[in-house]
DNA sequence: GTCTATAGGTCGATAGAC
DNA sequence: GTCTATCGACCTATAGAC
């Protein structure tokens, strides 16, 4: 009685799991949880549907594992905001990193957006245990910077919300942005310049 | 050959169509197009499924009509930005109006967000014909204001994006915001103060 | 490949308004 | 009596799972 995921995963297992996760990311991020089908994921992965279910316990299992895995890399930029760095530099670097992620990982951004939009049915606990403590630590750091006069005083929580909103917008609302900005123009480049100005003016004491 | 929706709509028809649209908004905005079911909509509306289909041609028809109807009210605040008004006042009033809509019509916001996230499959034409011309008119107005030295110079298109992103965030990512901000606090009130500061500092010449 | 549940959609019969 | 509105039962395709 050998379970697929138990013991040491073989080369092939590792490779196939990776392939399936990537295919699932592609499909889930484009069609949402309910809109995605195992058939689509199987086709995208170049594997049969039963083969997919050999590696994962079901559709929901794939989705949950995707979210778990992505949570880490998603929080990483905020984690890296250094309390001992120069405040404005740190914030702007964070904005730039988030924007870079929007450019490089738009599928991940849309996957999260989809999940949150629907009320985070499969991610509620993760928000509480993963995001919330980090959010509180970092907003405290920012508040301290403001108290010390190193940054202009605003509500640090809304500051972070506005950084998330403005950066992720270019991935999540890409379909709209593409309609409104002429093709060929590098939208994210323009956003970087704009957002740098926005947050510099806001936070300069 | 009499279609249900042809000719003069009776009292009952008007009433039931309204009830169904509202139920559909509730369900579609919570579960997305694919995640919503006619049974859910029927139950929410307090009508039978065949009765729903007596008034609409099908699931997609309901969704399309919802989007069409909402498009107008959605663009209304931007439409009302007055080229002859005082520039900063007009922009801040627009921000406030958008935030007010987020508070009053979060379901509508999520319905749009869902649709755009999935690549606007049922709204592409509307973006081109409805949103795009308006967007170009209004960004031109803002650019003129900047040229005349009445506002600080930034890319007006990204300015509008950032207004959309920051205001709609509170409806679309509500599930996340609720986790991060203590219950009982009026989040949108705090957002209003913050966003007023943000855009005032950005745009004051 | 097969089984099963579900979800979109149809039909025909009935109830109610004018 | 006719037309509008309503609904239970049914059909079919699809999608998750084994």
TrEMBL record, chains A, B:
One of its GO terms (biological process) is negative regulation of DNA-templated transcription. Residues 14-74 form the HTH tetR-type domain. Keywords: DNA-binding. The keyword Flavoprotein does not apply. Transmembrane segments: none annotated. Signal peptide: none annotated. The keyword Nucleotide-binding does not apply. Residues 37-56 bind DNA. GO terms for molecular function: DNA-binding transcription factor activity; transcription cis-regulatory region binding. SUPFAM superfamilies: Homeodomain-like (SSF46689), Tetracyclin repressor-like, C-terminal domain (SSF48498). InterPro entries: Homeodomain-like_sf, HTH-type_TetR-like_transc_reg, HTH_TetR, Tet_transcr_reg_TetR-rel_C_sf, Tscrpt_reg_YcdC_C. PANTHER family: HTH-TYPE TRANSCRIPTIONAL REGULATOR RUTR. This is TetR family transcriptional regulator. It comes from Shimia isoporae.
């Amino acid at each position: 009685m050998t379970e697929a995921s138990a013991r040491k995963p073989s080369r092939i297992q590792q490779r196939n799991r990776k392939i399936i996760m990537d295919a699932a990311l592609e499909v889930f991020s484009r069609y949402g949880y309910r809109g995605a089908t195992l058939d689509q994921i199987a086709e995208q992965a170049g594997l049969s549907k039963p083969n997919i279910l050999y590696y994962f316990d079901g559709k929901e299992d794939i989705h949950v594992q995707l979210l778990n895995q992505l949570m880490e890399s998603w929080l990483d930029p905020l984690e890296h905001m250094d309390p001992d760095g120069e405040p404005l530099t740190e914030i702007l670097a964070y904005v730039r990193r988030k924007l870079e992620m929007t450019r490089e990982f738009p599928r991940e951004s849309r996957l999260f957006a989809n999940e949150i939009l629907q009320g985070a049915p499969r991610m509620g606990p993760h928000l509480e245990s993963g995001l919330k403590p980090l959010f509180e630590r970092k907003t405290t750091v920012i508040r301290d910077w403001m108290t010390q006069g190193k940054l202009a005083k605003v509500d640090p929580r809304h500051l972070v919300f506005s950084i998330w909103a403005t950066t992720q917008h270019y991935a999540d609302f890409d379909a709209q942005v593409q309609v409104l900005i002429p093709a060929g123009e590098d939208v994210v480049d323009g956003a970087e310049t704009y957002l740098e100005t926005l947050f510099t003016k806001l936070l300069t004491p």
